[in-house]
Amino acid sequence: MGLIVDVFEARSDNYGYLAHDTATGRTAAIDAPEAGPIKNALLHRGWRLTDIFITHHHIDHVEAIPELKAEFGVTVSGPRAEADNIPGLDVLLDPGTTLALGETTFEIFATPGHTLGHIVFYNPAGGHLFSADALFSLGVGRMFEGTPGPMWEGLKVLRALPDATLVYPGHEYTASNAKFALSIDPDNAVLQTRAAEVHALRAAGRFTVPANLGIEKQANPFLRADDPVIARYYGLEGADPAEVFAAIRKGKDTF
């Protein structure tokens, strides 16, 4: 018994995920970017959608809620802090609480920055982290609503999870993230290896996720804002890591 995760493409560069509790058959879509790909994945697997778990309010993560809810009668759970901007929410989630999918339990963490109320879903038993736009492979989401300090603090919570954790981000941005990471940290051997792997995967038309969190801790510059190597690149030795994080984010925004 456990959790099976199905990964598929949606929209232009979104990842879609189905999380299936094998004990009970309950199946959740993690975010709702596009109805067609979600329904195709359900058909391929022979699963029935029972739940939708929402991470944040952006349209490319919630647009399919009304159609899926009307067709499947699902329960939609999402962040209380963004409830006014998310259609069809049934269960309002607060950071620090847990959410059950059959016999599978998810912990809810606050990851503000991309949006103020952004949350992520972590399944400790299976080591699955659905990070949406808070944490990408080799990157993080744009800081649309938040500020560097709280965003960095949220990422530190994710960084503290076990190295074996599997990271399921909201988008396929890994190749472009790798190019930026190498531009500021060119001598990082772990990053070099991961970038080569990403290049090979994309050339073969394959996904770059789930990502291994242990590798991300070593290769993702946004998780290393307190690393002197990254601070030195920006001339910020001894600075608050939140200031370094802000410099990395600004650098990526203009890369």
UniProtKB/TrEMBL annotation:
Ranges where the Metallo-beta-lactamase domain occurs: 13-171
The EC number(s) this enzyme carries: 3.1.2.6
Reaction it catalyzes: an S-(2-hydroxyacyl)glutathione + H2O = a 2-hydroxy carboxylate + glutathione + H(+)
SUPFAM superfamilies noted in UniProt: Metallo-hydrolase/oxidoreductase
Domain of life where this protein originates: Bacteria
Binding locations of Zn(2+) 2: 60-61, 133, 171
Cofactors (names): Zn(2+)
Any Gene Ontology biological process: methylglyoxal catabolic process to D-lactate via S-lactoyl-glutathione
Single GO molecular function: hydroxyacylglutathione hydrolase activity
CDD domains listed in its UniProt record: hydroxyacylglutathione_hydrolase_MBL-fold (cd07723)
Family matches, as Gene3D superfamilies: Ribonuclease Z/Hydroxyacylglutathione hydrolase-like
The UniProt record lists the keyword NADP: no
Cofactor note: Binds 2 Zn(2+) ions per subunit.
Entry binding sites for Zn(2+) 1: 56, 58, 114, 133
Enzyme class, broadest EC rank: hydrolase
Main function: Thiolesterase that catalyzes the hydrolysis of S-D-lactoyl-glutathione to form glutathione and D-lactic acid.
Protein family per UniProt: Belongs to the metallo-beta-lactamase superfamily. Glyoxalase II family.
Subunit structure: Monomer.
UniProt-recorded name of the protein: Hydroxyacylglutathione hydrolase
Organism: Devosia limi DSM 17137
Gene: gloB
